[in-house]
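Lab notebook, bench 4. Still working through the backlog of constructs that have no structural model yet. Next entry is a single chain of 123 residues. Request: give me the structure tokens for it.
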Amino acid sequence: MKLRIHGNSLRLRLTRSEVEQLTETGFCTESLCFGPGSRLTYMLEASPDVTLIDVEYGEDCIRVFLPRDMAQAWAGSDQISLCSERAELGRPSLLIEKDFQCLHPKETTPNEAADAFPNPSAA
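Model written out:
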């Protein structure tokens, strides 16, 4: 799962196996280590207890929540992304996307390319 932070927005990109993991287990998580005892964790959770896409931050963890039925429908469809704009509430905008194969690969490993969704722009 890739995390992009830009201004007051968060974007998560999931590979096919991560989307499958989300639907099977209800969550997908990654961590960025800064050294001993210093780590930023980010996770996406599909929960029956939420009705909107939301995010919270605490204890060095960014937790993005999706309604479970929304996650299941998204995972099983051709829909590319889910988004939430709640800037009026002082919340970051959120974008959750399926990670596509690069049209012009740079430094991706064969495993990364194989696990990405087929790019709809590819000829």
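Notes after review: The mean pLDDT is 89. The domain at 2-100 is CATH 3.30.1360 (Gyrase A; domain 2). Flag for follow-up if needed.
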